[in-house]
Amino acid sequence: MGPVPDGNDTSAIQVTWLPAIKGHPGSAFYVQYRLKGDKTWHTTTVEEYEDRKLVYGLEKDALYEIRVVAIDGEHAQPSLIKMVDIGVTGLGRIFAGRPLLLARGRER
């Protein structure tokens, strides 16, 4: 898991997804995130019951790469990467303005 919130120096975003209808839609999901340019992904805990996850401990005024990974038995399928701009106010703005849709590693 990534950094833990520390007072007013960090931010959080809520990542929402819609499971794919065909293939391996996923029975559980987790979010991976990293600062743009970093090679290492941070991973949230697995979510089995909701279609969203709060990602916290992000740096303000930074650009992040975010993806959702669907788990279905032995299969794990990441979504396409979305760029998220965490403004100086700490509010995440997903440039595409819509949830991540999972379908065989492609956005729908």
Automatic annotation (TrEMBL):
Protein name: Fibronectin type-III domain-containing protein
InterPro entries in the record: FN3_dom, FN3_sf, Ig-like_fold
Domain Fibronectin type-III: 7-74
Lineage: Eukaryota, Metazoa, Ecdysozoa, Arthropoda, Chelicerata
Species this chain originates from: Haemaphysalis longicornis
Annotated Gene3D superfamilies: Immunoglobulins
